[in-house]
Amino acid sequence: MLDQPIAQIENLRVEFQTKDGPVVGVEDVSFSINSGETVCVVGESGSGKSVSSLSLMRLVEYGGGEIAGGRLIFDRKNDGPMDLREAGPDLMRTIRGNEIGMIFQEPMTALNPVFTIGRQLTEGLRVHKGLSKAEAQERALELMRQVRIPEPEKRLDQYPHELSGGMRQRVVIAIALACEPRLLIADEPTTALDVTIQAEILALMDRLKRETGTAVMFITHDMAVVAQMADRVVVMFRGNKVEEGTVEEIFENPQHPYTKALLAAVPKLGEMRGKSAPEPMKLLGTDQGEIKPIPGTNEPLLAVTGLTTRFPVTGGLLRRVVANVHAAEDISFTINKGQTLSLVGESGCGKSTVGRSLLRLVEPMSGQITLDGKEIMDMNQSELRASRLDMQMIFQDPFASLNPQMQLIDQVAEPMRNYGTASGKALTDRVEMLFDRVELPRSFLRRFPHELSGGQRQRVAIARALALNPKLIVADEAVSALDVSVQAQVVNLMMELQAELGLSYLFISHDMAVVERVSHYVGVMYLGRIVEMGPRAAVFENPQHAYTQALMKAVPIADPRKRKDERDLNFKPIPSPMHPVGYDPEPSKYSEVTPEHFVLLTDSGY
After folding, report:
1. What integer is the mean pLDDT of 297-319?
2. The CATH number of the domain where 507 resides is what?
3. Per the database record, which ranges form the ABC transporter domain (predicted)?
């Protein structure tokens, strides 16, 4: 059993045909994965990590790629080893999902928007395992519980858009695990998840691997996750494998300069101890010279008081409102000019809702939002449109927020055309300048979104948000899907712009190490309320609320000798934010522990 690896990639070469001739996605890569082993493939976006996994699934051909050389040996359950390059479409269909499961990076694009979660979960079980409808439904519920989805019975009848990002990702993981595959390919499965769920999902995958002997190919750029999960590590750079070794060897004695630079660029929790203002992050392979902190000002730009946003839930024959989802409950905070306030918390805690409520992309139920002296809640549509010159948003999923049919030059120019702030040559010059600012080559101006990597797309989104010179930018998980090196560049870019243009950010994130880097103030959210709020140093170095402490504990550490045990992660299940129509929650009351450091006294349920 052990002498034959479950999967072997030998001298793989993948080419993509473009207008400018063939582009090599993977040049010459070989590695194997044994039963019950986790091999982490790391590298930055564009290094060929995902291309290798898509080749193994023979899906790369559907994305315009061609396997130009090499062998893909897979050891089948009953039929022994075979080269997947020679398998026909029907055989591949049997293997996919049944013997090789895949967790895709983007949960929103991996799920079908027109089918319920239950339908998508049971489909593979009925096709591959021949289960009856009732048996498949039973197994689907069991899988939903395994990936810790609250109220699974109700979720089975919901559609993907009704779930938060973290929940959608858990559904994708459940689908991949449904048929108990021999090989599980996980392509950035925890990138869009917050710390606590990430810790649980990693523990879940680890447990399943031990119980079922599944081989796991884990693609990630998060070195802390690698330290937590990997048995062996393969480091990729520009389509080539540059280093391979056990997890201890890679972390404690990296040989290749790229691996060393990659490890140096990882933001670590606790690095900012004793520093009062945010500082830029370390970049891969560059000498940044002196790093200047960004103090900001004490002049308020945005004041939010008692912001409450609820979403109605309809039911019954007449589709009456039977309950409300209390997404954001009695939220108050201030953001100063040139400073960053970060909101952290688990998926579904309401942090994105708060960001969208500020711009009135979702309508708040009550509360006051004052931006630079103007009351946003009292504005009519035309005043609101004018006020959007001052506030912009960078969304979580750059692929979904960019128009697939427009060239990038037009997407970045569009806000300026809409508001008439520039035209003709001035417009083109400004777009080129914005591309320079976000460090994208001008040759990209004529490209379309699908021709860029995730990190590059996110930079286009940042360039577009900057087009109108806003005062406030709401960055909703803007760097969560980026790899270490690109994340550092994008974060530094945002901080440089903050220092130069005096921008203020509401930075919504679940990556505690990045939050520690960029924030002046931090608010921790749980179930629609801010449970703790204060200057970054106070919240990170002296967390007072039980939930903040649990959150800090779940952050993975980039050291394979300090792995988290499943027993350490004792998170309480998150109660439902849904309440009947007449329910009136008590207002949030806070006690001030130290100056500006507030902790919620009202019972938050944690």
Report:
1. 90
2. 3.40.50.300
3. 7-263, 302-552
Q: Is residue 464 helix, strand or coil?
A: helix
- Dist. CA 144–CA 170, nearest whole Å: 8
258-280 mean pLDDT: 81
Digit-coded pLDDT (tens) for 381-397:
999 999 999 999 998 77
In the DSSP assignment, the letter for residue 37 is -
Strand partners, 333: 304
Domain hosting residue 517, numbered range: 300-390+470-552+578-600
Quick check: 476 and 429 in contact, CB under 8 A?
no
| Structural domains in the chain (count) | 1
The DSSP call for residue 96 is B
Query: Is the pLDDT score of 167 beyond 50?
Result: yes
Pairing state between β 300-315 and 366-371: antiparallel
CA-to-CA dists, residue 342 to 222, 335, 353, 377, 533, angstroms: 21, 10, 14, 22, 10
Residue of higher predicted confidence among 44 and 154: 154
Cβ atoms of 393 and 476 closer than 8 Å = yes
Residue 15 predicted with pLDDT over 70: yes
Query: What separation, in Å, do the N-terminal and C-terminal C-alpha atoms of the chain show?
Result: 47
Name the packing angle between helices 117-128 and 133-146 (round to 10°). Answer: 120
Identify the three-state secondary structure at position 299: coil
> H helices then E strands: how many in the chain?
21, 23
pLDDT, average across residues 418-430: 91
By CB atoms closer than 10 A (0-12, 13-18, 19+), residue 426 is: exposed
Is the model's pLDDT at 2 over the cut of 80? Answer: no
DSSP state of 171: H
Q: What is the mean pLDDT of the chain?
A: 87
Sign (positive or negative) of CA dihedral 22, 28, 32, 38: negative
| Position 328 in a domain | yes
Q: Are 215 and 6 in contact (CB under 8 A)?
A: yes
The radius of gyration of the chain's CA atoms, rounded to the nearest angstrom, is: 24
Reduced to 3 DSSP states, what percent helix, strand and coil does the chain have, rounded to the nearest 5? 35, 25, 35
Confidence of residue 288 (pLDDT cuts 50, 70, 90): low
Identify the H or E element spanning 461. helix 454-466
Residue 351 lies in a domain: yes
Residue 41 has pLDDT above 90, yes or no: yes
Q: How many CB atoms lie within 10 A of CB 513?
A: 23
Which residue from 482, 407, 480, 491 is spatially nearest to 449, judged by alpha carbons? 407
Angstrom CA distances, 27 to 12, 58, 72, stand at 7, 17, 14
For residue 551, give the H/E element and its range.
Answer: helix 546-554
Distance between CA atoms of residues 111 and 172, nearest Å: 7
Q: Rounded distance, CA 10 to CA 571, Å?
A: 42
52 pLDDT above the threshold of 50: yes
Q: How far apart are CA 402 and CA 461, in angstroms?
A: 7
CB 15 within 8 A of CB 22: yes
Residue 227: inside a domain, yes or no?
Answer: no
**Percent of the residues in the chain that have a pLDDT greater than 70, as a whole number:** 96
pLDDT in tens, 231-263: 999 999 988 999 999 999 999 999 999 888 888
Q: How far apart are CA 29 and CA 209, in angstroms?
A: 25
**Per-residue confidence (pLDDT) for residue 1, from 0 to 100:** 41
On whether residue 534 sits in a domain, the answer given is yes
